[in-house]
Amino acid sequence: MGPEILRDVSFHLPERSFQFLSGPSGAGKTTLLRLLFMSLKPTRGLITIFGKDRSAITRTELPLLRRNIGVVFQDFRLLDHLTTYENVALPLRVRGREESTYRSDVIELLKWVGLGERMHVLPPILSGGEKQRAAIARALIEQPRILLADEPTGNVDPQLARRLLRLLIELNRLGTAVLIATHDLGLMDQVDARRMVLSGGRLEIYD
Amino acid sequence: MTETKRLLKNLGTRISSGARGAVSRKQMPIVPPDNVAGRAMVLVIAIMTFLSCLTLGAVTLVRDTAATWQTQIAREATIQIKPEEGLDMASALAQARDIAASYPGVVDATVVDAQATARLLEPWLGTGLDIESLPVPRLVIVTIDPLSRPDFAAMRSQLQETVANATLDDHRTWVDRLVAMARTTVTIGMSALALMLSATALTVIFATRGAMAGNGHIIEVLHFVGAEAPFIASQFRRHFLLAGMKGAAAGGIGAILVFVGFYWWSSRNMATPEADQATALFGNFAIGPSGYIGVGAIVVVIAVLTAATTHVTVLSYLKNVDSTHPDSM
Ligand SMILES: Nc1ncnc2c1ncn2[C@@H]1O[C@H](COP(=O)(O)OP(=O)(O)OP(=O)(O)O)[C@@H](O)[C@H]1O
Ligand SMILES: [Mg+2]
Predict the structure, then answer these.
(1) Residue B19, domain member (yes or no)
(2) Do A139 and A159 fall into the same domain?
(3) Domain of B158, in residue numbers
(4) How confident is the model at residue B322 (pLDDT cuts 50, 70, 90)?
(5) What is the Å distance from ligand 2's center to A135 Cα?
(6) Ligand nearest to the CA of A26
(7) Which one-letter DSSP state was computed for residue A97?
(8) Residue A44 located in a structural domain
(9) Which residue owns the Cα nearest ligand 1 atom 24?
(10) Inter-chain touch A107–B220, beta carbons under 8 Å
(11) A22 in ligand 1 pocket by Cβ < 6 Å?
(12) B106 and B190, same structural domain?
């Protein structure tokens, strides 16, 4: 077993809250998000998600809980054989929704993030920033209760980053708790929000 | 208004009513078809279906033929009277016939007359012989109602008491042997069929596991967007059901072609010695309607078996992935 990446970390994400998670590369931001997303189990310690003890969550409950969590992965995790449109619509398809009930939503959202022209293109020929926007659109298409975004603006220019940040802020106003992991100080300065800083395996919170 | 529309409206977008630029082309399957259930698997399923259908065809052929023989034999019994010094053959035959005819369940009792007996012996003894001068056993053919068979035990003892040298053969031994043979053949055939279906299921298990390992990244993303295990299984199942149907249909059609070909061959060569042998054994080599229904049933069973096997395999695979690598779930 390797070294402990996170130690003595204790915090609470309230409903409808908005916060940044920062820290140097390798500090454990992605690891913390994976713990929250339940794609990683803590070796020790207690995690409670939507009032449920993580260790008591069964395999059948997990997918249903995850439907309340939107995730933007640092490495996007788009499916290469599905178009941008199909990738963004995937969470809805998985919920068994009819395509006609969500088609216009997906298209409007794609247009808003500037992918209106890239809708029927496969991810391998998208630019890094385009993939990132598709990943963001997929994470919030279902208006989750909480959005975990890992470097959501790492691959776009500052202007587009501001636009995407506005999207996340508006999502938060409509009731989604948002946690953005980033080391982009410029981005954090645009919003007056709680900052959680990871370093040396410990977490410090600046309200 | 949907949540997404409200979000975008708050951001200052003018939302059009219909979906502008909407495309209603068919969505790509979530699990791409080309890296699943390859041609090799379709071929294996086709071969297995073909062999299963042939086995089933052979089994029905044997069973039907045995049943025909059985009823033919069961319709008849014979009384044999051996000649002896001082025995009045004609009256013994008449007596035996009358006794047999007096039993309920006997439709008819006929003495095989001298000419007919001579004809029966012709192949061995040649023509123009005087049957009366030879010590040849004589027969009474008893025709039986197969639905209400007479009391053979009583008939046998009465014959033995009244007519000297009379023996009754109700062909029971033959019928019993036939039934046993047919049953053994059917059992062997059915076991072979079960083995073939198991082999098919195993092939599908291997193919499914391969497909799942090759699509691990897709399964991971599906987990992340909240897909439940049965949904993931259904995505794989649809490909395997299609492959199973293709393979099974091809195999079934192949088997029917073979049946039709055999039928055509046997009816074309009706007079040749080979065909005579086959005909003597199997009737006219026709697979009856039950055989064709059986082929249809096997095709359906194999397609469904393929889909069901895939479903179960995916579910147990997902369960295993979860318990051995909790990190990757
Ligand atoms: N599955 C794992 N097993 C062991 N160590 C891991 C695993 N995943 C990550 N790590 C280690 O944990 C540390 C934290 O990684 P993490 O990805 O959380 O960093 P990060 O803060 O997201 O960095 P970045 O800003 O570069 O994305 C790193 O040293 C990494 O090598
Ligand atoms: Mg990271």
Answers:
(1) no
(2) no
(3) 83-164
(4) low
(5) 15
(6) 1
(7) -
(8) yes
(9) A25
(10) no
(11) no
(12) no
Would the CB of A27 count as within 6 Å of ligand 1? yes
Residue numbers of A between 140 and 199 with CB closer than 8 Å to B:
140-143, 166-167, 170-171, 173-174
**B312/B237 Cα distance (integer angstroms):** 9
Q: Look at chain A and report how many structural domains it folds into.
A: 2
- The residue contributing the CA closest to ligand 1 atom 28 is A26
Co-location of B206 and B312 in the same domain: yes
Structural domains of chain B, count: 2
Q: Do B199 and B147 have their domain in common?
A: no
Same domain, yes or no: B62 and B201: yes
> Which of A201, A205, A70, A60 has the alpha carbon at shortest distance from A144?
A70
Task: Tell me phi and psi for residue A72, to 5 degrees.
Answer: -105, 115
B65 assigned to some structural domain: yes
Regarding the beta carbon of A152 and ligand 1, being less than 6 Å apart is answered: no
**Same domain assignment for residues A40 and A99:** no
The residue contributing the CA closest to ligand 1 atom 14 is A28
**Which H helix or E strand runs over A90?**
helix A84-94
- Same domain for B160 and B197: no
By the CB < 8 Å criterion, does B216 face chain A?
A: no
Distance (Å) from the alpha carbon of A105 to chain B's nearest alpha carbon: 6
Measure the CA–CA gap between B318 and B329, rounded to whole angstroms: 9
pLDDT per residue as tens digits for the range B195-240: 999 999 999 999 888 888 888 899 999 999 999 999 999 999 988 8
Write out pLDDT tens, residues A148-165: 999 999 888 999 899 899
Regarding the beta carbon of A40 and ligand 1, being less than 6 Å apart is answered no
Residues B318 and B195 in one domain: yes
pTM: 0.77
Scan for tokens 């001298």, then name that residue: B114
Given A143, A169, A184, the domain boundary residue is A143
Across the interface, of B30, B221, B229, the residue whose CB is closest to A77 is: B221
A-B Cβ pairs (cutoff 8 Å, strict): 118
Which of B164, B195, B228 terminates a domain? The answer is B164
- Measured CA to CA in angstroms, residue A152 lies from A74, A75, A83, B18, B33 at distances of 7, 10, 20, 30, 32
A39 in reach of chain B (CB within 8 A):
yes
pLDDT at residue A109, as a whole number: 93
pLDDT at B248 over 60: yes
Ligand 1 proximity of A34 Cβ (cutoff 6 Å) = no
Two structure tokens written together for A26: 């390798």
Are the C-beta atoms of residues B249 and B45 closer than 8 Å to each other? no
Mark whether A186 and A149 lie in a shared domain. yes
Q: Residue A170: which of B7, B22, B32 has the nearest Cβ?
A: B7
Asked if the ipTM is above 0.90, the reply is yes
* Angle subtended at Cα B227 by Cα A169 and Cα A84, rounded to the nearest 5 degrees: 60
Domain that holds residue A173: 1-68+144-207
Contact B208, B313 (CB under 8 A): yes
Q: Do B110 and B235 belong to one domain?
A: no
